[in-house]
Inverse folding.
């Protein structure tokens, strides 16, 4: 797969394309359905058009929490036998593109066919419609993918994550939800109570419900079983900002500034404010026992 990441006016292509386009945040089953339909066509090359950063970040002029960062989307898209992925640098100029100018861009990169969902919109303020596209391209409209009577979408995945329903999110993603971040220095309270943790800077990732999780952590080419806490540490060392802290089982290495991947496996319990440090430690011991039992499945 050839990855072309640039502003829309600098993207070039000389081969006929069948494409699907969108933000593809999370690359969930609905997105995968679109890509698999693209791959069915044998008369053109196959491509995905997506955007970075997320349009909401530019339009709202503030950070926007996503299920996937650019590196994640590239990794996930690379699993499909696509010929091209076009990552358009989403900026204010591109957000102002009129319907005719957007269509001119698609024609310039030799799009012949578009595979899209029924609610697909494009160009400035989403004024472009499927009827606009049909005037210039073959358009293949895909029915919505439905789970529990609800259309599969990025918002639906986020709804499950914020409920702590990791299993349902996993079904819609067709994989475990994971984030990648850098290990940073914390206040080292975990060491004092016998549970040294790695504090992870998770950036703009969308975080699941506050609470304790069984997770797997990828560090330096290997996976490790671990216990994660998402929240504000209400019992000891309260933090106004949400934190992600990882206690890695049977692990004693220096990993500050390392990039690690955290894969969410099971939600164990909500985050509580305990009456004492001792009560917190006793619960953490029970949590560790649960994680060890789960890791043996």
């Amino acid at each position: 797969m050839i990855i072309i990441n640039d502003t829309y006016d600098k993207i070039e292509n000389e081969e006929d394309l069948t494409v699907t386009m969108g933000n593809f945040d999370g690359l969930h089953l609905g997105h995968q359905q679109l890509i698999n339909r693209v791959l069915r066509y044998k008369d053109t090359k196959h491509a995905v058009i997506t955007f970075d950063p997320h349009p909401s970040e530019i339009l709202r002029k503030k950070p926007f929490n996503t299920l996937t960062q650019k590196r994640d989307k590239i990794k996930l898209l690379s699993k499909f036998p696509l010929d091209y992925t076009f990552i358009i640098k989403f900026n204010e100029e591109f957000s102002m593109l009129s319907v005719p100018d957007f269509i001119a861009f698609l024609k310039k990169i030799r799009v012949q066919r578009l595979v899209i969902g029924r609610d697909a919109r494009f160009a400035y303020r989403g004024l472009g419609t499927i009827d606009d596209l049909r005037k210039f391209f073959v358009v293949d409209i895909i029915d919505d993918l439905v789970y529990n009577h609800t259309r599969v979408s990025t918002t639906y995945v986020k709804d499950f994550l914020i409920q702590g329903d990791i299993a349902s999110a996993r079904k819609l993603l067709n994989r475990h939800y994971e984030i990648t971040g850098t290990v940073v220095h914390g206040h080292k309270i975990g060491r004092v109570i016998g549970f040294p943790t790695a504090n992870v800077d998770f950036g703009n990732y969308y975080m699941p419900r506050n609470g304790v999780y069984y997770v797997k952590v990828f560090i330096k080419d290997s996976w490790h079983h671990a216990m994660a806490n998402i929240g504000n540490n209400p019992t000891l060392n309260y933090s106004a900002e949400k934190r992600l802290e990882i206690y890695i089982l049977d692990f004693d290495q220096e990993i500050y500034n390392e990039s690690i991947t955290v894969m969410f496996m099971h939600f164990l319990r909500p985050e509580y404010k305990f009456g004492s440090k001792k009560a917190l430690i006793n619960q953490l011991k029970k949590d560790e026992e649960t994680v060890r039992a789960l890791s043996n499945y």
About this structure: The mean pLDDT is 94. Residues 2-145 form a domain with the Rossmann fold fold (CATH 3.40.50.620).
